[in-house]
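ok trying this again, last paste got cut off
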Amino acid sequence: MEDEDQNVPDQEIDFCTLGMFIIDEIHYLPPTPPVFDILGGAGSFSALGARLFSPPPLSKTVSWIVDKGSDFPPSLTEQIESWQTSCLIREDESRLTTRGWNGYDSSQNRAFKYTTPKLRLTTDSLTPTLLLSKSFHLICSPTRCIDLVTAILRARKALNKDIEKPLFIWEPVPDLCLPTELLNCTNCLPYIDILSPNAHELAGFMGDVGSEIDPLTDEVSKTWVERACDQLLGSMPLQSYALVIRCGAQGCYVAKNGGRSRRPSMKRKNWKARRPANHARGGLTLDMDMTALFAGLLDESGDLVREEVVEMDPGIERWLPAYFGEGGGKRV
């Protein structure tokens, strides 16, 4: 394996994904022929999304990791290089590149399976440059998300104890978007800044699969999506985080819980609440919430300061349309 640091220069990184790189083969219903050696995986698509908003030279602030095996097609190397991102390429001739099989049925439901062993990315996969990224994209289970966030923060502090906390964007894995995982999902919310499932995955968490589709239009029900988001936002009212629900051609629904906002006290304007050791960003935890709840109501002596008002930020609720090319062609 070649020296990894030479792929990513010592520069500022705005976005880093821990999603895997996968070479896909896609099988459609006849008469459409199958296609092979397609660049895929959550790492590729999240990097592409960030790249669309980062033209050169900003494209170099987008980072992702590609594990090249002995069977890696040269055409994909050219495609990756054309994006002009800070892609960390790791070569290992002793293994095959992670590959996946995709098949579609008459309802456009996708089936997926790995055809070669997968190589999952961890905090140890990040070089010092990537570790200091301003944001991280994680695609994993709720419990692994918490583990990754805490491990990344710990490793960053080891490099620079004064570094600011990054943004964490969590995309849940479809297989674990289940009602039995809803509690784990809400427990994960204090650790992240953005949760981004698609509408079907959100319905899986809520135990309401099928209800996300409007039977009259056969499209995602905006009313259902908004109601489900209200329920999730209501589970952590004192914390600020955002939901970005992906709804295909209908675009996405963005809902943000404004969290707690407090008019600062003049005599305590330099007061700062200490972040608990578990790095959680809110929610009902034993070591933080009583302090957080009453911080704006107490003066230094511990007496109530009734003239200071604790109020809730109404947050944001907005639908964003999908983007289509001229003539309603390919969706970007």
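PB: full thing came through this time. The radius of gyration is 22 Å.
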